[in-house]
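Structure request: Zinc finger CGNR domain-containing protein, Cohnella luojiensis.
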Amino acid sequence: MLWDDFLNSVHHDWRGDGAAEDRLDDSDWLDAWMDKQQLVVDHRPTAKDITSLKRLRALLHRMAKSFVDNSRPAVEDIVMLNEIMADGAVIRTLSADDDGYRIKLSPIGKQWTNLEAEIAASFSRMLTDNEPSRIRICDNPNCLWVYYDDTRNRSKRYCDDKMCGNLMKVRRFRARKKAESSSNNTN
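Returned structure:
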């Protein structure tokens, strides 16, 4: 999804070395991400554009965190999201494939504000079309990725069970072994 890929553009080293990288500052990453999302703008981002993108990301993170905390986003945040989406005039195009019909929304403008409107609209569509209570933040304290829990029983704890899930399982196992070893040494 557009909104969560954007929201997770701050990369934390999930293994725990404390390193973090803001990928919005990496033009190669930004180009690849925009290609993947089929987003087009008419110029390279200025410092002002990057600052605005980071402000949007902080807004979405605040709103996502409110759902994780079982509360509602602040009214000011909803107002701000609506202001961002106001720059999002789109052309609607119907397409058909073997899976059915889809409507594609393509921004009319090619400015960075139009791109921000698309990201904000993606987050808003998720809120209206899905269950905001399924928004989660990875339980790995070194990762902190935001994701949508689409499991049937709402039990997903990690952004990726193979990476963060396995790492945390190994850490719990080692902590148990260490505790057992210390208690055996004191006896």
